[in-house]
Amino acid sequence: MKKLILSFFAVLFGSFLIAVPTSISQFIKTDQFGYQTTAQKIAVISDPQAGYNSALSFSPGTTYQVRNWVTDAVVFSGPVTAWNGGSTHTQSGDKAFWFDFSSYTTAGSYYIFDPTNNVGSYRFEISDCVYNNVLKGAMRMFYYQRCGFAKQLPFADTGYVDGASHVGPQQDLDCRLYNNTSATTSKNLSGGWYDAGDYNKYVNFTWGTLTDLLLSYEQNPAAWADDYNIPESGNGVPDLLDETKVELDWLLKMQNPDGSVLCVVGGGGASPPSADVAARRYGPATTSATYTAASVFALAAIQYNSTGMTAYGSTLQAAAISAWNWANANPGITFYNAGTLAAGEQEVDAYGTFARQIASAIYLYALTGGSSYKSFVDANYSNMHLIQWTFAYPFEGPEQDALLYYAKTTGATTSVKNAVKTAYTASLKTNNADNLPAYTAQTDAYRAYLADNNYTWNSNQTKSKQGIMFLNMNVYAMDPGNAASYKNAASGFVHYFHGVNPNSKTYLSNMSGYGAENSVSSFYHSWFEDGSALWDEVGISTYGPAPGFMPGGVNPTYDWDGCCPTGCGSAASNALCYSETIDPPKNQPIQKSWKDFNTSWPINSWTITEAGIYTQAAYARLLSHFCPGAACVSTGIHTAEGRTGLVEMIYPQPAKNELVVKFYGTSTKAVSFVLFDISGKELLSSKQAVAADGTMEIQLPVVSAGIYFVKVVSESKTEVRKIIIE
Questions:
Q1: Res 72 pLDDT > 70
Q2: Is the pLDDT reported for residue 8 higher than 80?
């Protein structure tokens, strides 16, 4: 954008001056939310050599600056260094440069500036609180994923109000067995979370999800507040535990009186969720699902007991023991649902079932001190991959978490816990080039290394798990001498998610209200479906998708459906193969195998952009380690600091004849609104009351299409936003 001259700002803001870079360059990549004060802070600058943007080029100057966003003052300057001697980074197709400004620690709002090219970065904050409200925003994904639960004001954000879903005939309150739909098989299986972009609910897929969320609470309880604007907020229980209770209560319903646990509920799909009227069916009890439930029930009981919710903890403990007993007595009971019920195959292999059995024994031992659980672990731990392979890697997060948990549990057998710690430490520290050696060798130009073959479907979950592995080294104090390196390595994955990647993309949806200026605008989800006038895409539909969802991530194996281009059943279906350009994400370097899109079959965008509760939980756990919690006092001024700003959103974008300004809160006091063109000319000035729902409608004058600025002034706050009018 063009830099507005100071005299214009003096008129526009009075004493409240705002400076912006002359032009924002997506080649200068920073964490779009920001950095903690004493954290490692490294901007990555790219010069594309391969991929969708290879026709562009960027040659950074030799010296970069950190500038104050408010005053434009230069507060720090330093050299730019070429990554790997100027080599092209194969995974991204970019030449890369690093600008290290870690030594600058003063809280405030900033941007990076390239004096040679007269361009700058997106705005970011430096504050120890910078991620607190990002975590809240991301955790609200689980609220929107609640099944059978009405999303209503004031808890739902504007545009995402919806009635309770799947409460109709033969739905979750009257769910029937998949192969016997008589009323005799009816069960109340309501509640829980939608698993992903569809409305299915899988027990086995909750294993990693709940393990991550419950351990994130145990490992850093201070990060988890009671003010996430969910119906349970303010009840004295951290909202994380209120939210996990939603899923645990559903799992309790999935448990039969004999202790066995049903494996899946599926069927249907509509937008919004309350419009789904399809019948719902459940799958039978299986050994793997029952061990999954035993594991998470036991781990959850530990957490709820620690908060004083001992009655609920006792319920979970009894359920865990009952599930353990049934699964031990009924090995090998499986149900492969693909093609019969729900889209994703929920059954796991024999090792996956065994790993859940080990985890159940570990958490039951930690919960009860029962010697039989300990004996089982001691007799069988050596069959776990971590011990057999001496290899820790991000595809076995909950398996490794369970073993580490045993190693820190009072009374654990010394030889067993030493074997676990030794194997994990050796793999993280020296024995695997994917782990700490990748950080110290600066293997990834974007500072969040995964090996090529680890970039698969759902790479964002894998990325989070890799970051968690580094943090585990510090949580369990397994290599104190390298503690700073493990934390810095993990922070690289946080920054990758927040914009330090080849696509300059914050991999969370619709996060401009939290400070990310280039976040995901569209992703695969039945609610936020392709073509929806309300929810399809930020800036195109009225609202875009709900904020805070993390999609699956870059996927170099992406392709359209195998029926394309001519075998999809009809000329009309074949034509769908060409309904959307798929290059990118096809034919790209690994880290550029991305596109913001939500097109369904046969384009199959879900293999890149579908959000899932497991992906969300892994990211939330990773981020929570960088959130000091309620004790943190915010010092920044940007709305990235959270829901303390004035304007929540302005829509639609682009606008035509009118705008709606949505404010935080529902104050009915008068607010002033001023519209300026880019030269500083005032085009409209009005003052009116905010409606009870927190919105204000503005009728726009007839103007040329282009970029404009609006200034909104309340009694205590002034904010300026850029808008587009067409």
A1: yes
A2: no
Q: How far apart are CA 624 and CA 219, in angstroms?
A: 9
Q: Residue 513 is which amino acid?
A: G
Output the domain CATH number for residue 712.
2.60.40.2550
pLDDT at position 634: 46
Q: What number of other Cβ atoms are within 10 A of residue 699's Cβ?
A: 9
Say how far apart CA 59 and CA 15 lie, in whole Å. 37
In this prediction the pTM is 0.88
Single-letter residue type at 336: Y
Residue with tokens 């769908």: 576
Sign of CA dihedral 224, 226, 231, 237: positive
SS3 of the chain: helix, strand, coil, percent, to 5: 35, 15, 50
CA dihedral 43, 48, 53, 58 (to 10 degrees): 70
Question: Does residue 511 lie in a domain region?
Answer: no
Give the pairing type, strands 176-177 and 281-282: parallel
pLDDT tens, 429-457?
Answer: 999 999 999 999 999 999 999 999 999 99
Segments of 280-369 assigned E as strands: 281-282
- If residue 143 lies in a helix (H) or strand (E), which one and from where to where? helix 132-144
Q: Is residue 716 in a domain?
A: yes
344-379: per-residue pLDDT in tens?
999 999 999 999 999 999 999 999 999 999 999 999
Q: Is the pLDDT of residue 273 over 70?
A: yes
**What is the pairing mode between strands 119-120 and 74-82?**
unpaired
Domain count, the chain: 1
Residue 700: inside a domain, yes or no?
yes
CA distance 585 to 606: 12
Give SS3 for 164. Answer: coil
Q: What is the pLDDT of residues 290-332, one digit of tens each?
A: 999 999 999 999 999 999 999 999 999 999 999 999 999 999 9
Domain of 695? 646-726
Could you tell me which residues come within 8 angstroms of residue 122 by beta carbon, excluding any fewer than 6 positions away?
A: 24, 30, 32, 111, 499, 516, 517, 518
Pairing of strands 519-520, 506-509: parallel
- In whole angstroms, what separates CA 384 from the centre of its chain? 29
190 is a domain residue: no
Residue 184 to residue 201: CA distance in whole angstroms? 22
